[in-house]
TrEMBL record:
Record organism: Baudoinia panamericana (strain UAMH 10762)
Alphabetical UniProt keywords: Oxidoreductase
Protein name: Enoyl reductase (ER) domain-containing protein
Assembly and interaction partners: Monomer.
One term of GO molecular function: oxidoreductase activity, acting on NAD(P)H
Family: Belongs to the zinc-containing alcohol dehydrogenase family.
Database matches in Pfam families: ADH_N
Protein's UniProt keywords contain Endoplasmic reticulum: no
PANTHER family in the cross-refs: HYPOTHETICAL OXIDOREDUCTASE (EUROFUNG), OXIDOREDUCTASE, PUTATIVE (AFU_ORTHOLOGUE AFUA_8G01420)-RELATED
């Protein structure tokens, strides 16, 4: 099969590889579309002398084979899946490998193209809100008569931010104070202004952003929760100027930073999506199992919507272009996805 491996640059090479064989608890999927994420170009930057690998983690396609312990899925099923980061069998290939607990059904109404925009980003949002911040969950939403529960979502137009908005809406968490830039129209389509939700433009100077967050708080209400899906360029500093210094909680997404500027009295956590594969010490495999199935239900019922997608031409040969666009900051409220069957040399391309 054809497979794309990513080196520093990003530079992408298409190689011939064997179709993966599933372990007892794994699923092999024929990839129709692969998604992409910023980590796909970032990780090779820090890989040193390690050989390039397939960095893709967002799988969308048709089940090809399953392991002996897999009873939920069978060949021919329409699925999406979150591949274990750094492991063999990534999504930039004709066939990809996933664990059964991070594989979920794609409803018929959700296309493979849409499915590729979901797994890693949606799970990051769920982990941030309901594990790290321990906010009320959508299965037990807050009553309309509940007092305001302000939540800042910084980077609201990104896939992670947009999924966080949708999950918070389902839990009836309001007001949502959404920090966004040029893609504000996309964010506006997801929020409920009648419940106090608002947008603050991060392209203003820091003082204006801080004032915008303050002004969005209901009178007499403290800001105690923030999800920083950007975690750089001063984002968390702006948030912390408004977060309650004693009870405030913030969760961030970029590893390898110490965030020393955040006051010690504010509870800070790092949201690591790899925890659903027990990759970093926290074993959140059950969380991943439950939430991917809940997201599948949300797709079926229509209250959870995929981030808009842009199909990069060329199949796997387009991966380098897509990752370069991510690195250069060209993506705005869009997920770059790749139709693997359009790769030169793939049967039917």
């Amino acid at each position: 099969m054809k497979e794309a491996v990513i080196a520093k640059g990003p530079k992408v090479q298409i190689i011939d590889s064997s179709i993966p064989t599933p372990g007892p608890d794994q699923v092999v999927t024929k990839v129709i579309f692969s998604g992409s994420n910023p980590k796909d170009w970032k990780r090779p930057e820090y890989a040193g002398d390690k050989p390039p690998i397939n960095q893709g983690d967002d799988i969308s396609g048709i089940v090809h084979a399953v392991g002996d312990n897999v009873s939920e899925f069978r060949p021919g099923d329409r699925v999406a899946a979150f591949h274990e980061m750094g492991a063999p069998g990534g999504s930039y290939a004709e066939y990809a490998l996933s664990e059964k607990h991070t594989t979920f059904y794609l409803p018929k109404k959700t296309s493979f193209q849409e499915g590729a925009a979901i797994p890693l980003a949606a799970m990051t949002a769920a982990l941030a809100l309901f594990y790290r911040l321990a906010l009320p969950k959508p299965d037990t939403p807050r009553l309309d008569s509940s007092p305001p529960l302000p939540l800042v979502i910084y980077g609201a137009s990104s896939a992670v931010g947009s999924y966080a908005i949708q999950l918070a809406q389902r839990a009836n968490i309001h007001p949502l104070i959404c920090i966004a830039g040029r893609a504000q129209q996309h964010v506006r389509s997801l929020i409920t202004p009648a419940k106090g939700d608002t947008i603050v433009d991060y392209r203003q100077d820091s003082e204006a952003v801080v004032e915008g967050i303050r002004n969005a708080l209901p009178k007499g209400t403290k800001l105690e929760y923030a999800f920083d899906a950007v975690s750089e360029k001063g984002s968390y500093l702006n948030i912390c100027k408004v977060l309650d210094p004693q009870t405030g909680k913030i969760t961030l997404v970029l590893p390898g930073k110490k965030y020393e500027e955040i006051p010690d009295t504010i509870q800070q956590t790092l949201t690591r999506v790899g925890d659903v594969h027990a990759a970093y010490g926290d074993d959140l495999r059950d969380f991943g199992y439950i939430w991917f199935r809940y997201i599948s239900r949300g797709l079926e019922e229509g209250w959870f919507k995929p981030q808009p997608q842009e199909v990069v031409p060329g199949g796997l040969e387009g991966v380098e272009t897509g990752l370069r666009n991510l690195k250069e900051g060209r993506a705005s409220a869009v997920k770059y996805v790749f139709e693997v069957g359009k790769t030169p040399g793939v049967s039917g391309a």
